[in-house]
Amino acid sequence: MTDIETHSGMTSGPQQAAIIMAAGKGTRMRSKHSKVLHEVAGIPMIVRVVESALNAGITKVVLVVGHQSEEVIETLNARFPNVDISWALQAEQKGTAHAVMCAEESLMNQGAFSGDVWILSGDVPTLSASLLRSLGEAHPREPLLVTGMKLDDPKSYGRLLKDDQGELFAIREAKDCTLSERAVDEVNAGLYRVEATLLFNGLKTIKTDNAQGEYYLTDLVDYAVQQGSKIACPILTGERALQLEGVNDRVDLAAAESRAQHSLALAMMRAGVTLLRPETLRLSAMTIVGEDSLIEEGVTLIGESVVGEGVTIERGCWIKDCTIADGTVIKAYSHLEGAKIGESASVGPFARLREGTVLEAKVKIGNFVETKKTLMEEGAKASHLSYLGDAKIGRSANIGAGTITCNYDGYEKHQTVVGAGAFIGSDTQLVAPVSVGEGAFVAAGTTVTQNVPADALVLTRPETTHRRGWATLFHQRRAHLKK
Ligand code: UD1
Ligand code: MG
Predict the structure, then answer these.
(1) Domain that holds residue 220
(2) Where on the phi/psi map is residue 356: left (φ > 0), alpha (ψ -120 to 50), or beta?
(3) Cα angle at 22 between 189 and 75, to 5 degrees?
(4) Within this chain, do residues 227 and 79 fall inside the same structural domain, yes or no?
(5) Residue 29's pLDDT is what?
(6) Shared domain check, 256 and 180
(7) How far is the centre of ligand 2, averaged over its atoms, from the C-alpha of 248 (Å)?
(8) Does residue 347 sit in the same domain as residue 206?
(9) Closest alpha carbon to 337 in 350, 349, 352
C-alpha cells in the first residue's frame, strides 16, 4: 500500500518534474541488489524518494536507471501501478550531469517540457515531501535552486563556494578542492531545482576536466553564473539537513533507518500512542496505531499492520501484517504474522499466531499456543500449550492444555471443526478431518478420530489398574544393579 496524498502544494506555479538519479552501482554497499532497493523502514529507498516527489505535488517523474535496472523498474511499477513514471537508461555511468542528460528525451517525450525540474538522488531515503514543498515555496522564482547543508564534518560532499556577497559561484568536489576550499563547511546536498531551458542548455557545456574525469552536474552553477541567472542556495541545518544525508554503505543505511524510525515514532506519539521506549521499536511506514494504545519496549510492528485504540502490546512482541482491534492485549514476546484479531482479545505471553489466524472478540490465546489458518469464534479459549492448524473453533469453546490438531497426513492438510461451547480436555489429539459437535465434551487424553455428536462425551481411556505395593517390590528387585 503506497499512500499518495493529494494536495495543491507546488502545482500553482510552473509545471514540476523530477529527474531521479539511480543508475549508480553503489559499490560501497557490497550487495547483489541495487543500492536504491535496500529498504528503510520497510520501504525501498527509491520508492520513498518517488513517494516524496509525488506527495510534494511533482507530477512528472523520470527515473535514470543503469545498474540492476530491471529490478528497479519492476519494484517501482509494482508500487506505483497508477503513476506515470518514465525511464531513462544510462548504460554507462559517466557522472551526474550525464545522468540528467540521459533523462532529457524521456522528459520531453510528450511535447517540450518548459517547467521546473527537480533533480533528486535515489539514495537519499529520508527526504520528506514537506521539505521539498517548503523549499519550493521559499524560492518560487530563482531559475536555479541548489540545496546546501552545514556540516561539522563535510566529508566527501561538494563544497559550496561563495563570493564576498555570499552568492554561490561554484561547487567544488572534495577531490578537486584546494586546502582552503576543503575547509568550507557548507556543502552540496545534491538536491536541485532548475528551469528546464537553463538545465538542458547548461548540460551541453559541461566537460570532464576534473579529478574523476566525469560530467559533473555541479558545473551547472558555473553556467548559471555566466548566464547571469539568479541562484538560490538555502543552507539547511539540524533535522532538515539530516533528511538529506545520502546512503552509500551499510553504515549510512543504519543511520537512515534510525532517522526514519525516529520520525515514525514521533508521528505515532503525536497521534496519541504511548511508547514506553520509542528508541527500541521497529516500525514500518505503513503501520497505523490508534489513540490510547500502549506499546512497550522492544516491539517490532511492521508490514501493513493496523492496530486499533486502547490496545496494549507488551515488550518484545514481533508483529507483521496484522489487524488488531480496540482494547486487545498482546502479552510479552508473542510472534504474530498475518493474523486478524478482534476486540478485547488476549494473546500471549509467548504465543505464535501464523498466517490466516482469525480471532474474534474476547478470544483468549495463552502461552505457547500456535495457530495457523484457524478461526476462533467469539470468546473461545486456548490457554496453554496447543497447536491449532486448519481449524474452526466455535463460540466460547474451551481448548484444554496440550491439545493438538493433527492436521497433516504427510500429503495434505485437513480441517478440524469444534462446535460452540465444546470442551476439549487437556492433551487431546484431534485427528483431522474431524469435528466435535456443539457443547460436546472430550475427556482429557483422548485421541479423537471420529466425528463427535453434539452434547456427547468422548473418551478413549483404557481401564486404570492399581497394583498395591508394586513400587516397593520393584525397587527391591532392581536395587542390586546400582553400585
Ligand atoms: C554528488 C555531488 C556532490 C554532492 C553529493 C551529495 C556531483 C558531481 N557531486 O556527489 O557535490 O555533495 O552528490 O550527495 O554531482 N548517479 C547516476 N549516474 C552517474 C553518477 C551518479 O545515476 O553517472 C547517481 C547515483 O546513483 C546517485 C547520485 O547520482 O544516486 C549521486 O551520485 P554519487 O556518485 O553518489 O555522487 P557523489 O559523489 O555523492
Ligand atoms: Mg553519493
Answers:
(1) 16-242
(2) left
(3) 130
(4) yes
(5) 94
(6) no
(7) 6
(8) no
(9) 352
Fill in the amino acid letter for 120: L
Three-state DSSP string of 245-314: CCCCCHHHHHHHHHHHHHHHHHHHHHCCCEECCHHHCEECCCCEECCCCEECCCCEEECCCEECCCCEEC
93 lines ligand 1 (CB under 6 A): yes
Query: Does the beta carbon of 223 lie inside 6 Å of ligand 1?
Result: no
**3-state SS assignment for residue 162:** strand
Residues 272 and 128 in one domain: no
The secondary structure element, H or E, covering residue 131 is: helix 129-138
pLDDT-derived band at 312, boundaries 50, 70, 90: very high
Same domain, 296 and 238: no
Q: Check whether residue 274 and residue 172 sit in a common domain.
A: no
Cα separation values, 432 from 53, 382, 408, 429, 447, Å: 53, 18, 8, 9, 11
Nearest ligand to the CA of 158 is 1
In this structure, the answer to whether residues 238 and 305 fall within a common structural domain is no
Residue with CA closest to ligand 1 atom 13: 190
**CATH at 334:** 2.160.10.10
pLDDT of residue 167: 95
Instruction: Please say whether the beta carbons of 25 and 122 come within 8 A.
Output: no
- pTM equals 0.88
**What is the percent of the chain with per-residue pLDDT over 90, rounded to a whole number?**
90
480 domain residue, yes or no: no
> From ligand 1's centre to the CA of 21, what distance in Å?
8
Protein residue whose Cα sits closest to atom 34 of ligand 1: 24
- Residue 12 confidence (pLDDT): 61
Domains in the chain: how many in total?
2
Angstrom distance (rounded) from CA 170 to CA 482 = 92
Element (H, E) at 55: helix 45-55
Domain assignment present for 3: no
Q: Whose CA is nearest to atom 3 of ligand 1?
A: 158
99: DSSP letter: H
Same domain, 215 and 114: yes
**Ligand 1 nearest atom to the CA of residue 219, by list position:** 8
Report which residue type is found at 296.
E
